[in-house]
Amino acid sequence: MQHEQKSQKVSLDNSKIKMAIRAGIPLSITTYTLPREMSEYMEQVLAAFLNELGQEHMGTYLKYCLNELVTNAKKANTKRIYFKEKNLDLFDDSDYETGMKTFKDETLANIRHYLAMQKLTGLYVKLILQTRNNRIKIEVRNNSVLTFREYKRMHDKLSRAQQYTSVDQAMTQVVDLSEGAGLGIIIMILMLEKIGLTEENFQILCENGETITRIILPINEKTQRKLNSASHEFIKIIDEIPQFPESIMRVTRLINDSNTKMSEIAMAISSDVSLTTDLLRLVNSVTFALASPCRSIADAVKLVGIRGIKNMVLSVSSVNHLQGLGGDSQKALFMHAYRVAFYSYNLARNFCASERDIIDDSYICGLLHDMGKLVFATAHPGFIDNIRDICRQRNISQDIFEKLLAGVNHSEIGALIAEKWNFPDIIISVIRHHHEPDMAPPSSKKLSSLVYLADMLAHYQTNEVDYYQFDLDVLKLFEIGSENQLRKISDKLAAAFKED
Prior knowledge:
24 helices
């Protein structure tokens, strides 16, 4: 999200915080020297993050925990520089005892030098915030691996924390001042207990050359229940979203009937001039890259197949209906939908060449992945006011209403609308899980991952997300091992979409 900037005040970008929460992607802040401005910025991001989640009551306690963890990480990095300059082996018990006798006084006396060396050698402190599956994850990472001695001391401090019932008791009983004797960690555990957590919510581990201190917090279940309940109420309320016209429903019924002939499907589609025009335009677009232009619906059915035509009919009809709700359509949101549909289809052709069903379903799933947002973005003011009034009557708070209107829970709302329109299960599932493909059932996991990747690439191209925010499991699934490789894929898709 933001890296350290020299002697500049870093501004808070609430839009990135909101997007990260809605998409379940991580936010990361990296610093090498942890100046005061960066500490304040981290606190502001944490506060905004909690506020957006409706968890402001945790703010004071987690602010203390954050400061404790980043300070410890910075000190660990400083210790590595100090021991190296003293030619002492951090992993040797004798050298460790020798170094720690003078570490604090000598580093404080020449702190600018040690901070400059940390930056020069690339020793960082990184804060990561993420919310997924009704949990908040707060991580502080630094690329100085704990020695066994340090690891043991940390766990001893966590065990000691269980002896105390208050901060006052801890402060009066902790008398050993070497390395702070873990007083800060003890107070942190006591702080976590004040918001109903235990030491089990706090983890220390080393992975891939990093020391990771992690706090896992459950999101207020009451808030989540209200969001889910309100989402279902919204779908009951939104009677103004029309069902498809009878002509579309007739085509869909024919397609679903295994006894129907292709000629009958083509004739039914051709009877709707608008649908015929839109379908032929879509079939002949660069997206589908046909060898020769398709001139008739009969040819389109033969070339694209029954499943492909069905999805195209649903795609065209859905967009036409959403745009027809009233008011001005949000051009940027629809352009994003078309882009993700294009990317999804082309990614499917490249990564899933032998999986025809995924290729056929990829376009419509990409197009409608943000259906929950499209409904509200295209609605006229009177429609929104009407929903607001009904929400008030049904005791759905203004805060919950605003969150849903802004896009929180949009995946669930979109899936519920797709259910209302009797869409195939695979499409409903991908809409529901396009931000968290790991939560999708096996039958839709790969397609959900594909649409997730297409959506993230679209946001990556507008600098709304960074490479580190991509789900590693998704990148691994499609054998993308570096940002350079991702950028090449991104550039090719962007250039092809421009031609479309």
